[in-house]
UniProtKB/TrEMBL annotation:
<comment type="similarity">
    <text>Belongs to the methyl-accepting chemotaxis (MCP) protein family.</text>
</comment>
<feature type="compositionally biased region" description="Polar residues">
    <location>
        <begin position="289"/>
        <end position="309"/>
    </location>
</feature>
<protein>
    <submittedName>
        <fullName>HAMP domain-containing protein</fullName>
    </submittedName>
</protein>
<dbReference type="InterPro" id="IPR003660">
    <property type="entry name" value="HAMP_dom"/>
</dbReference>
<keyword id="KW-1003">Cell membrane</keyword>
<dbReference type="GO" id="GO:0006935">
    <property type="term" value="P:chemotaxis"/>
</dbReference>
<keyword id="KW-1133">Transmembrane helix</keyword>
<dbReference type="InterPro" id="IPR035440">
    <property type="entry name" value="4HB_MCP_dom_sf"/>
</dbReference>
<feature type="transmembrane region" description="Helical">
    <location>
        <begin position="189"/>
        <end position="212"/>
    </location>
</feature>
<dbReference type="InterPro" id="IPR003122">
    <property type="entry name" value="Tar_rcpt_lig-bd"/>
</dbReference>
<keyword id="KW-0807">Transducer</keyword>
<keyword id="KW-0488">Methylation</keyword>
<feature type="region of interest" description="Disordered">
    <location>
        <begin position="287"/>
        <end position="309"/>
    </location>
</feature>
<dbReference type="InterPro" id="IPR004090">
    <property type="entry name" value="Chemotax_Me-accpt_rcpt"/>
</dbReference>
<keyword id="KW-0472">Membrane</keyword>
<dbReference type="Pfam" id="PF02203">
    <property type="entry name" value="TarH"/>
</dbReference>
<feature type="domain" description="HAMP">
    <location>
        <begin position="214"/>
        <end position="268"/>
    </location>
</feature>
Amino acid sequence: MKHMTIRSALRWVVGVMVTLALVMAAVAFTGLHASNDSLRTLNEEDKRAESALSDSYASLLRARLQMEGARSAYEGGDFDSGKTRLGKASEMITQSDARWQDYLKVPRDAKETPLANTLIARRNELMEKGMRPLVEALDKMDLTQYRDITGRQIDSLAGAVSDASSAVMGYRKTRADALVANATRNFRIAVGVLGGGVLLALLLGLGAGVALKRLVLTPLEELIARMRRIAGGDLSDPIVKSAGRQNEIGRIRSVLGEMQGNLAGLVGGVRQGVYAMAGASREIAAGNTDLSSRTEQQAASLQETASSM
């Protein structure tokens, strides 16, 4: 981390923002997928319930047909055929009971429970007051009782079961349609929100990168270039304070400007000292030359005086 550049850090931050946006999208889509799984499970339950009720009722209808065949055979004196048909009717009733138990195993919600209870009551009435008494009457070959049951209540009992079954399946269909519509609407909303969120994250990341480049990278590169010129001895371009930049970059620029001004003053002072030392050296050299000339003149004068003496 100590050697990471600001540019690399900015790219890393933008990458993290985009990654988080994608992770959020993935989590949301996972939730939608789980919701779809729940809806699929409910749809399978509806199919199980519809299939079980349909098969159970159809088996009872086929049992009625077999019992009618047994009655006709008994009336014609064909007792073996009648017994055979009655046995098939009993098997079909057993099959109907098995499929009915399959329906009872299907989960129900609170709103379906009253409808299901009504259906259970109507079917129990059909079985106890209609189908099983018919089987018992044919088993005893009591055709009078059989005709009495069929003519008095069996059709109304079967119609009540059919109506109750239709009410249950109608509720399940209405509920399934509402759930599908709601799931479809939620899916579209989620896709729109997630798409907008991902797009917003990308735009924010791009905007952050551009803004940080303009506010941080470009001023830093400018300061680095100025520092290099200062390090090279170029103090001719003064750093002017930026009135509109009061952040860390602006403070660094101000401090660097003060440092450049101090360096310029220091170098100017050193330069003036050097110029003063050079002037003094020239004056000393001129004095030495003058002193040497006078010394030579005095020596020549002394020499002439000695010669004349």
